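Quarterly update from the structural biology core.
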Amino acid sequence: SVQAAESVLVHAAEGGVGLKALQAAKARGASVVATAGSPLKRGLLRAMGVKHAVGSRGIGFVDEVSGLMIE
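Predicted structure, tokenized:
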């Protein structure tokens, strides 16, 4: 179970399952890092209150996500 102040990675967060996982993590007070393939979908996630919405198709996405999960 996710606890407040934990970091959670939701991959493909713009999909149906991803959106539910995102909502559940946020409801529990977790810090969410979400991935989405397109800038439009990342914008949607940001509009939903996701602070860290990153691309998942670039070569550097693993390093970017790793850096955010350590915070």
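The radius of gyration is 11 Å.
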